[in-house]
Amino acid sequence: MMLHAGSTADSLERGLRAVATPERAANEKRYLKSDLEFIGATVGDIRRTVRTLIIKDQGDLRYGELIALVEELWRKPIHERRMAAVVLLEFCDPLLTIRDLVLLERLIRESKTWALADGLAGRVTGAIVWRDEQAARTLDRWSQDDDFWVRRSALLALMISLRKGGDFERFGRFADAMVHEKEFFIRKAIGWVLREASKSRPDEVFGWLSPRTARVSGVTIREAVKYLRPEQRDVLMGAYRQRRPAGTEFSL
Length: 252
What we know:
The chain is an all-alpha fold. It has a domain at about 1-95: Leucine-rich Repeat Variant (Alpha Horseshoe), CATH 1.25.10.90. The protein is about 70% helix and about 0% strand. The chain has helices at about 5-20, 20-30, 45-60, 65-75, 80-90, 100-110, 115-130, 135-140, 150-155, 160-165, 170-180, 185-200, 200-210, 220-225, 230-240. The radius of gyration is 20 Å and the shape is globular.
């Protein structure tokens, strides 16, 4: 039996309202500085409700059903419904291909908050990019977009690939073009991706940061060096404090 997107989305909303609190709704709206309506359900509530109501009860979704339900959840300007759409895409990401980057780009533009955009970029888009290297060409365009949420998404969408040994050069090129930016969410994203990459590729992260320690922001470098070896971290932070490149003073 075909899933009915409208009734399923409304059932999910009712389930979330049943476990929500007005205090959390007010706090989340204030914290995220969002124009959306907030029900007051936690991310854990959303994930459990999506898993129970849709994944378990409905069984395997067809591609068309997935997209219709995502669009229906997103249609109402309610934060938790939109977060449920993101969670659903995460759960069903094997159904997605490079063709779905058009949809994901639109959702990222409409998100206007890290709480929605980061899942769409890092986990959903990132999974597509890892499976299909041609998808990374779309990120080349995203990295130069006027919308900083789209630029941030270009960085975050490479995180899965970098963890699994993918192309560091593309990330380095994106980050180098954005390293001068004042936008906090760009600075944080550069540092965040470097931090995650450093867990398995510390020398590449050290090598990228060394000539740029005079240019990166404090937000970026403090995040990036967290998992580097102590001697690498000391060299980079020392050069950063003196606002000079780390150069070749340290042997990898």
